[in-house]
Amino acid sequence: MNHVLLVEDDPWNQAVIEDIFRYDNVPGDLVCVDCAEKALRILSALDPLVVLMDLTLPGASGIEAIKIIKGDPATKDLRVWAITARNARADIDEALAAGCDGYFVKPVLRKQLAEQLRMLPARGASESLELQTARQTDEHDLAG
To answer: What is the pLDDT of residues 18-39, one digit of tens each?
Structure first.
């Protein structure tokens, strides 16, 4: 099964990503958890195509979780994309240094995230995705 794991504590932000899967023809099954600890517990069994990680979470931060994921030989090759309101250069650099494979600033551009998710190879494909850093300009495309 092709799963995408969303680690997001805000129900409204979860709903935005759920809508992208529902209405923008994004393949795969979205699995949502509200903290890094839950994500780390299910990660190996779920084996997602990508982890969409908020960086500001209750308990362990998204950065801490990314370091654990990338430091574990069993999960080090998983794609992890930050989806966060933190848009300072230092935040982006910290996430990339922790092992993030992509960085999306909230509010995310719905079309841009949907396109990136559709580009993910299905489980078993050998394609890789280049680092995508998506930043919102003046457009507000969340509620769409």
So the answer is: 999 999 988 889 999 999 999 9
